[in-house]
Amino acid sequence: MSKDWPGWPAEDAERYHQAGWWAGETFSAALGRWAARRPEHVAVVDHRRRLTYADLVAESRAVAGGLADHGVRRGDRVVVQLPNVAEFLTTWFALQHLGAVPVHAMPAHRSAELEHLTDLADARAYVTTDVHQGFDHRTLADHLAAARVRAGREAPLVVIVGEVGDRDAVAYDRLLAAADPAVPDLAVSSRDLALLLLSGGTTGLPKLIPRTHDDYLYNARLSAERCGMGPDTVFLAALPVAFNYSWCCPGALGTLSAGGTVVLARDPSPDTVLDLVEAERVTSLTLNPPLAGLYVEEIGFGGRDTSSVQVVDVGSARLPDDVAARVGPAFGATLQQVYGMAEGLICYTGLDDPDELVTTTQGVPMSPGDEVRVVDGEGRDVAPGEPGELLTRGPYTLRGYWRAAEHDAVAFTPDGFYRTGDLVRRLDSGHLVVVGRVKEQINRGGEKVAPAEVESHLVTHPLVEIAAVFGVPDPLYGERVAAAVRPRPGGPAPDAAALSVHLRERGLAAYKIPESFTIVDDVPLTAVAKIDKAALREAVRP
């Protein structure tokens, strides 16, 4: 076990290995094996270029050589914040060749999240783009480096995909000119840390989720099998590929493990995605519920050829049953519901499940090694069909977060079950139906928002005394972010525009900023003197 994160107990790790779930392979070795099958087959397509499997290996090794020339070593953590471009994959595998650890950051993250991630991971480097969707990430890199220096810490190496400009950073293209792209094979164990994913975060800024080569390769391989992927699969990532969902459920990694082609959409708009479906003859997509609803409407207008699509996976938030019933017929494909978490457990409906299960449940755990309990508030197992909190452990579900021992004591049971915070019902068939949340986290169309984090920024506004942030129902996103604010005594009430500007200036990601603010004279309290958010939610419900 690492001092930074608890691994699996030795007896469980050996059991997973003996069962064949853990293959004893690293991602660097796996990429070489995948490329050897069909080196000239197209592996990655973005809006600028196409890379074969041989190209992916060659470029990732060249980037690894360049990063090594700039001091990146085995075990170093590197924050990667890139949109859906081929360089996400080449950089990610370059770090695997070096035995370094990519830390996934979302394109929408801003200074508040990135400073936190860089500090928590003690990142050696930061890889980003120049401009994406009108936002200049280079200024964000400057801010991040300056903040680290002010805190008395070493500024990270900054690598920029695109134009560097007049700043202390390395252009990605310079890494490709490395003198020695033949990176030596390192003594990396398949049980070593392979990457750090972001938690949704329920009480503040995101925590980091450690994933090993063994468990994450198993996640990719088994997901690809459950989704029917093979060498002819053409998978389209509409959501950011940095999401665990788009990356490995089955996502880009599952597609590569099956020998297929990954198509990266530069944005998730219906025009962009459906144009790519036609042009690339896409066979598989992963969507969230809002996107699924938008695409169903766009297809309904006619003039779209989706005949190549075989499977549409929808997950990251609860898919309403009425929308679920329309997805398959609209695309002329099989709908597959996906439920899971970056912490591990993934569930899929079966490709041959009856429509009733596909449109009303969120699937069954994908591995025979997944252990699942549904419990009441006292930790007692509930009767089949009754709602309760989902607990889980297994060969690809973490046993503890990165540098979060105090939180782990609450997030896990003494025998290693992860408390998901999701309320579910388990049917006799084993299918799970998600019915709500135990934790306070807001799920805005798959984007997770921790109310406590937003509240901590709101109360820094000079006119705000108390702030309460909570989710309210939304027909498109499932939930949207709302806030109730009590002004300081005797002072004027802030307006919504001023509060939104304040949060943006604090460096908060746009999706976390409340979409409605309600000014209240009094804040209701529960019997234990906590803010009664249920009462506030009812008061502001449209």
From TrEMBL:
<dbReference type="Pfam" id="PF13193">
    <property type="entry name" value="AMP-binding_C"/>
</dbReference>
<dbReference type="InterPro" id="IPR042099">
    <property type="entry name" value="ANL_N_sf"/>
</dbReference>
<keyword id="KW-0436">Ligase</keyword>
<dbReference type="Pfam" id="PF00501">
    <property type="entry name" value="AMP-binding"/>
</dbReference>
<dbReference type="InterPro" id="IPR050237">
    <property type="entry name" value="ATP-dep_AMP-bd_enzyme"/>
</dbReference>
<dbReference type="InterPro" id="IPR025110">
    <property type="entry name" value="AMP-bd_C"/>
</dbReference>
<dbReference type="InterPro" id="IPR000873">
    <property type="entry name" value="AMP-dep_synth/lig_dom"/>
</dbReference>
<dbReference type="InterPro" id="IPR020845">
    <property type="entry name" value="AMP-binding_CS"/>
</dbReference>
<feature type="domain" description="AMP-binding enzyme C-terminal">
    <location>
        <begin position="453"/>
        <end position="530"/>
    </location>
</feature>
<protein>
    <submittedName>
        <fullName>2,3-dihydroxybenzoate-AMP ligase</fullName>
    </submittedName>
</protein>
<dbReference type="InterPro" id="IPR045851">
    <property type="entry name" value="AMP-bd_C_sf"/>
</dbReference>
<feature type="domain" description="AMP-dependent synthetase/ligase">
    <location>
        <begin position="33"/>
        <end position="402"/>
    </location>
</feature>
<dbReference type="GO" id="GO:0016874">
    <property type="term" value="F:ligase activity"/>
</dbReference>
